[in-house]
Amino acid sequence: MQHGMLYHHLSAPYPGADVIHFVCDLREDLDVERFRAAWNRVAARHQPFRTKFRWDGSEPPTQDVVPRVELDLPVIDWRNRTQQGRDQAFRDLLAEDCRRGVDLTVAPATRLVLIRWDETEWRCVWSIPHILIDGAGATVVFREVFDFYDNGPDYEPPDAPQYSSFLEWLATRDNAGDEEYWRQLLAGVTSPTPLPGDGGFSSLSEPGLGRRALRLTREETARAAAFAKEIGVTLSTVVHGAWAILLSRYSGTDDVIFGAARACRQGTVANAESVVGLFINTLPVRARYTPDTTVREWLGELRRQQIAVRPHEHTALADIQRWTGSSAAQPLFESIIVFDRAQTDGLVHAERPAWTHRAFAVYEPAASAVTLYARAEDELELKLVYDRGRVADAAVEQLLDHLATAIREIVKGAD
């Protein structure tokens, strides 16, 4: 997983393409030094904060964990700005942080900044390259930071499970059958499914990340979830199916390939849910649709593929490319789906419901030219993060509308 993300980091068209920004808004009288100390206690507990990478091209990349790091927490005061001015300054701050990029050869490869938003609110921005963490790990970090902050310097939680235990498990896992499975699934695939909207508009935007999002209504989300349950699939399967329909319609083929992120924590190491680090892996999904196939049959086949891949979900994407004869210079897929059952805010508050004065958000990177982030809370959120040098803003807005329509059609057409 990390080898693939390191390649993505090195080959990205612009700095910071792989940086995640986690944001927490704090409506409280914050003790800045105590907050800084809480972050550094978490950094001392978890290896990704102290990790750096080495590579020279001749040997596989390696990562080293240094004994200690010190996280800085610069403070910016925006109290004298208007709300509109603060919002624009925040967008500029994220853009500038991406332009800075990160140096993975030094530790820590993460940054913090604390903004005095107004007289009653603070905003903390934590930026970290995706190669070091996933969303589940970030939830652990936020929980521990504020546990340390709230309980003071005498608070001593149990020892934290370490990410190195997962890397050791990964190196020794039984990978029998991986090659055969992926060869069979991807037999006949010679090129990635064309990117929706790629080149479809004559004037593309300036390079950089673009974000567009919409939500289905509460009623539409409930109907989609009920339909999925009725036919024995999941809401994730319905979203995958809708995306496959769009790829098929845009590309003019009934055999499409896209990537899907998998959590990959279950069945690995003890206390995996409390480990801070990168577990997720992005793997190919193949969807073949014929006019005589019913929606229920087709979604059922997608669901069976989601289940069948479980023993092979830790396979490195580079190995899959090698086994299937794909060129390392050409990706297997141009779009990725990341499906979560909840937002970061919902995950944190599920464990700490009393933190009503704290709100958490994430500004995701583009894991590919187009990445669909779908989050299934009361209202299904569909967010596209995309390379504006590849896909025009107008094309993405159209794509989002078509995606929502495809989900509605799947549910309505199966009634």
Describe this protein's structure.
Helix 8 packs across helix 9 (295-308) and helix 8 (235-251) packs across helix 12 (393-413). By secondary structure, the chain is an alpha+beta fold. The two termini are 40 Å apart. It has helices at residues 2-11, 32-45, 83-100, 135-151, 163-172, 178-185, 218-230, 235-251, 295-308, 317-323, 344-351, 393-413; strands at residues 19-26, 51-54, 62-65, 75-77, 111-118, 121-129, 209-215, 255-262, 281-288, 335-340, 358-363, 370-376, 380-387. The model is unreliable at 200-204 (pLDDT under 50). The protein is globular and about 65 Å long. The strands form three sheets. It has a six-stranded mixed β-sheet with strand order 7-13-12-10-8-9. A five-stranded mixed β-sheet has the order 4-5-6-1-11. Helix content is 38%, strand content 21%.
Features:
415 residues, alpha+beta, six-stranded mixed β-sheet, five-stranded mixed β-sheet
Mean pLDDT reading: 90
> Roughly how many Å apart are the termini?
40 Å
Radius of gyration: 22 Å
Element pattern in H and E: HEHEEEHEEHHHEHHEEHHEHEEEH
Q: Which range does the strand content fall in?
A: 15-25%
Which structural class matches the secondary elements? alpha+beta
> Count of DSSP helices?
12
- Give the strand line-up of the largest sheet: 7-13-12-10-8-9
**Biggest β-sheet description:** 6 strands, mixed
Low-confidence stretches: 200-204
Helix content: 25-40%
Strand count: 13
Shape: globular
